Amino acid sequence: MRRLVLGLLLGAMITTGSGCFLPIYSGDPARRARQLLFTSENLRLLLEDWERIWFLDHPDQMTPFRTSGGVI
What is the pLDDT of residue 53? Predict the structure, then answer.
């Protein structure tokens, strides 16, 4: 029983303090703002990568009109 309680206590300590032990962003406000901008830009580009992987950025080949696939 003691091992179970100690295991649960250790698990709670690990999960609640996971972001505080090693901070992901700098403490300097100017540098932290730049890091947050880079992170948000990477997340914005993730959607474009997802569409490119699933070929959602290409024209549909089942249309009755001929499309070149380039910029029209």
Answer: 83
Q: Is residue 34 part of a domain?
A: yes
In the block, tokens 């540098």 appear at 31
Is residue 39 assigned to a domain? Answer: yes
Are 26 and 32 spatial neighbours (Cβ–Cβ below 8 Å)? yes
Exposure string over 45-72, b if 16+ CB within 10 A, otherwise e = eeeeeeeeeeeeeeeeeeeeeeeeeeee
Q: What is the pLDDT of residues 9-60, one digit of tens each?
A: 888 877 766 556 667 888 899 999 998 888 888 888 888 888 888 877 766 6
- Structure tokens of 17? 């303090």
